[in-house]
């Protein structure tokens, strides 16, 4: 299936300052609801502006983008004296509607979103939430092929939350794609069918449903070798402030990481673990062949977080992409089938997680034996595994397989390979 | 495109930012042309100068009615920033045409000028030329390129001053010199048309500059 939006190797930097986005690959298909989660200043708004065609890229290419785009900014702080209804009328006409149709659609959307103060209120007099409703309405004056929403829930009341969720679902059901951001993973998980995490300008698949660990490491020796934290297994976010490195890590990788850090001169300052985020399956209703991911990665396309679930058809363990089933179709099935599906899917998910952990572990410890290194073994960012087959690691930013830094174990001079010592490999 | 022009004009009207420059224009035309008795071209030179000033002001006001965020939404609805920019330029052209007609007709009633076809043509071309030159300067001084209002005001005053005072800078200063030369209107038409073409080219160049430089800031 052709992507409605395709970004290849996209990078963005402003006025020679820091890189906002780096080598982003992203493919969005019709009917998908893509959630991008990330903290303040992580680059998610910039990514959305690029997706919407409002910001040029510094590097890479935008291969595909539909013309009919609806864009909702994070804030709509207009000082315009024009009324909400008149504004929507103009936007409708710009999108090709007649005046009558534009007004009719504007009234329908404003009633549905329950604009407080009435449709004839001036935009400058609207509260943040009501202005946001107008912003949402203008994006939907004509059902868009691509709906781009930047933190759309901010400022909306509970009722509008539900309406917005419905509007997003309707857009996807009609064959449009939706991309939205939020800094709250639970919010993203509640609406998205595909979830990405953006941090430090890089896009990765989110660890939905995973327990997380937040680590603070200190370079106690002041000369501890430092790996590229981003490329270590399970690391979703890394920030360095002075001698302290703060890491957000998938919990199951945290122990190995701390073990390694301690062995290489780092001290663990604090550890905080969180329970798994109770989220709906990010792939709810979608089936994807695992081999597709692998092919995508080799082809340089974005690899999306695709969770397998068993096919309903007997013998169809790995249904093809053409066999994807929409969420609404699945909703129509009997509850019993749904429950069976969910249980089976959970089993698959667990197996996938174990496999992924094994694969990522292989990449971390480069001693050829897939076991954790001992304290004292050195970090090493060198990559000598280029010729090794790359597993389909769940990374969105996978134009080419990312070289992972790893520990290089070498035999001791006495030839005892059970007693590795650190050696800096160049 | 018509929808974009209507939207652009509507935003300007509701913002009330048009009032001051339009009042300045009509007041100036009234002061400088009421009771005039010389050649028609001289009366039109005053109208053209005023139109240049006011179109610079109005173009900035027209574009600045939308902040950056709202403009991004409009661009998404229109299919891209170039469409919105074209809508702005066309809306400014509509205003120029409207004020040109006013500036063309009022001196005929308020003064004692010998009326002739070539004289009216000179007035029409001269005011369109200065109006478009004002649009070109206004585009460069708008929020699309200059974010700070104070800097934009200084840039606009500087641009207008240079183009009015330095007679080697086309098209406004040479045009004013030509209109005050007391030549027969028939002999002015050809050089005025050339200056009008320069003015149109300036609008195109300014729009391209705004688009290219503005995109880098996005």
The description of the largest β-sheet of chain B is:
none
Overall spatial form of chain A:
elongated
Number of distinct beta strands of chain B: 0
Round the mean pLDDT of chain B to the nearest integer and report it. 90
Instruction: Note the run of SSEs of chain B as H and E.
Output: HHHHHHHHH
**DSSP summary: helix tally of chain A:** 10
Instruction: Specify the helix fraction band of chain B.
Output: over 70%
Quantity of strands of chain A, as a count: 15
Q: Rough shape of chain B?
A: elongated
Query: What level of helicity do the residues of chain A show?
Result: 25-40%
pLDDT under 50 segments of chain B (min length 5)?
A: none
- The top-level CATH class of the domain at 5-203 in chain A is Alpha Beta
How many domains make up the coordinates of chain B? 1
Strand order of the largest sheet of chain A: 5-6-7-3-8-9
Main interface: chain pair and counts: A-B, 33 and 28 residues
Q: Write down the CATH topology of the domain at 5-203 in chain A.
A: Rossmann fold
Cα gyration radius of chain B (Å) = 17 Å
How is this structure best described in words?
The complex is a heterodimer of chains A (426) and B (218). In chain A, 30% of the residues lie in helices and 21% in strands. Chain A is built from ten helices and 15 strands. Chain A has helices spanning 44-51, 84-94, 99-113, 128-139, 158-173, 185-191, 251-263, 290-299, 327-331, 335-364, and strands at 5-13, 19-28, 33-37, 59-64, 69-72, 146-149, 177-182, 194-199, 202-205, 212-219, 235-241, 244-250, 266-274, 409-410, 421-422. In chain A, the strands form four sheets. In chain A, strands 5-6-7-3-8-9 form a six-stranded mixed sheet, with helices on both faces. Chain A has a four-stranded antiparallel sheet with strand order 11-12-10-13, covered by helices on one side. In chain A, β8 (194-199) and β9 (202-205) form a beta hairpin. Chain B is mainly α and 218 residues long. Chain B has one domain (2-210). In chain B, 82% of the residues lie in helices and 0% in strands. Chain B is built from nine helices and no strands. Chain B is elongated and about 50 Å long. At the A-B interface, β5, α2 and α4 of A face α1, α4 and α9 of B.
